[in-house]
Inverse folding.
């Protein structure tokens, strides 16, 4: 019994430290980007408000509930005074996406390019800075995703490709809280075709549509600073297996950037998106819900940015009943929020 309470209290401590660290590091990065004119002040403020709201909202749906004051541990009440509306809204309004997804978007905007050679090193630098102490060592911040993904579309007629679109897996340790975030993404955030693909796979164990040829996707496990030697060894052993062949791009990225290990898509992603060219292409078993993976976010961004790809989706008869499937997700969302005693009044306006 004693061990149980100790574990519970340590979990709570890690939650508070991760939340606190995430908010303050995000503030540093965004303020610095605004001061060096890499990001408009207005944009930096919007990103920060969104991140602050999500983290404080997570405190409200945590078990036990953690109030904003406990998370931020401010002596001077600077943030609570400056963002009083966010402090209010975290108790009544749900966010639209996880905090790491917002940070990823901000980093893409700060870096000013969607090239993986620029975005990924900057992202990793940020993540290393967010680790939290636990048991005399530094551990992953619980709001930092474990997997990052990028995708693009190669148009064989035009012989050109789109930019990269990045996504991250849903990061949260509690099972109910994770379901809440997946349902929010499906109901309020993702491109409707991606939400639909998640719902159809959940309900019918089938794919809802197929993409046009040459949508390419690669994913990486993000290793922490402390795991960098392990990451290096994994990449070296993969490189050794390509000794007699040209090294594929996904492996070159992992070798150059460090702390990233190529990751094959899970069985659920294969089912939802059967004709995507995945790199690496073998299939990993899935122990999580449809919609948890980084692929959904990046593919959603690809579709939202390129209407010509949406028009080329090959849809089948599952379009009937689409609203009912989304409604089922919405009902589960409401029930889970109710169980965690969160009284929803709306979705955040930002
Ligand atoms: Zn997956």
């Amino acid at each position: 019994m004693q061990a149980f309470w100790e574990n519970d209290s340590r979990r709570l401590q890690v939650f508070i430290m991760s939340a606190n660290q995430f908010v303050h590091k995000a503030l540093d990065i965004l303020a610095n980007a605004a001061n060096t004119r890499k990001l408009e002040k207005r944009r930096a403020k919007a990103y920060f408000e969104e991140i602050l709201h999500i983290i404080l909202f997570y405190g409200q749906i945590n078990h036990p509930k953690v109030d904003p004051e406990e998370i931020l541990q401010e002596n001077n009440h600077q943030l609570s005074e400056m963002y009083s509306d966010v402090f209010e809204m975290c108790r009544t309004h749900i966010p639209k996406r996880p905090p790491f997804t917002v940070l990823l978007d901000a980093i893409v905007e700060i870096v000013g390019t969607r090239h993986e050679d620029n975005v990924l090193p900057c992202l990793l630098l940020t993540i290393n800075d967010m680790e939290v102490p636990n048991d005399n060592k530094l551990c992953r911040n619980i709001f930092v995703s474990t997997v990052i993904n990028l995708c693009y579309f190669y148009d064989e007629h035009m012989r050109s490709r789109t930019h990269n679109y990045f996504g991250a897996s849903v990061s949260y340790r509690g099972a109910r809280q994770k379901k809440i975030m997946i349902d929010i993404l499906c109901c309020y955030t993702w491109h409707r075709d991606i939400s639909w693909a998640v719902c159809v796979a959940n309900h019918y164990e089938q794919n809802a549509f197929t993409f046009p040829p040459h949508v390419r996707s690669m994913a990486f496990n993000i290793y922490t600073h402390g795991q960098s030697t392990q990451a290096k060894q994994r990449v070296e052993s993969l490189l050794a297996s390509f000794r007699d062949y040209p090294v594929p791009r996904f492996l070159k990225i992992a070798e150059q950037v460090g702390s990233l290990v190529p990751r094959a898509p899970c069985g659920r992603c294969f089912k939802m998106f059967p004709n995507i060219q995945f790199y690496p292409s073998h299939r990993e078993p899935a122990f999580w819900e449809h919609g948890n993976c980084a692929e959904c976010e990046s593919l959603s961004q690809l579709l939202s940015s390129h209407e010509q790809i949406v028009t080329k989706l090959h849809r089948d008869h599952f379009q009937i009943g689409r609203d009912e499937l989304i409604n089922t997700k919405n009902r589960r969302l409401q029930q889970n929020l109710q169980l965690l005693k969160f009284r929803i009044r709306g979705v955040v306006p930002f």
